[in-house]
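stuck on this chain:
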Amino acid sequence: MGEPLLHPELSTLFALAKARDMKICITTNGTLLQKRSDELLAAESLHKISVSLHSFEGNDGADEQELSYLTQVWNFAEKAAKKGVIVALRLWNDGGADARNGEILDFLRSRTGDNWPEMRNGSFLLRDHLYLERAGKFDWPDLSAGESGAQFCYGLRDQLGVLVDGTVVPCCLDHEGDIPLGNLFTQPLTEILTSPRACTLREGFSRRKPAEELCRRCGFAARFNK
């Protein structure tokens, strides 16, 4: 997990996926899109790339670099979309840390003209294969936080996370490895996914009673209560 465009063997990972007839979806903050553009556009296994525009606000020097950043993201997005790669430009921060949303939306509007969609939370087609995604801000899970009321999650159903040391966790929001389920360097994935802790976690979500403390304190999982 982490910023995927920092991976030194990104092209190798794309090639491995292609050899296995697998498709790759990437979520990035977009700051390295220009640097890794050639690799990304040449990757036949790249299916979708999501760019978290909302993450840029926290960077040092964001005031001075915003226009350059948005221009680089848009230029890449246009090229990727023309190749058939799905591109999602994310603003998942409505209601918090959203001071720059107006400027970002004005920039996107200037690039799309008459194709600008009605604004509300959801996914909107800006051009073929190019989308704008909007959603409210959520609180990352934290063992020191209060319970969020979360009842259900797709962790270990549709997704899992792998940390740099091989530790398997239920999802990408467990970036600290608070729920270690096993390690891919020493165990097969089937063994990890059928371990008692993994089974208890899935069963808890099925009963809408999360078994793990971290999951009960996840603001993102609370979205699935609706």
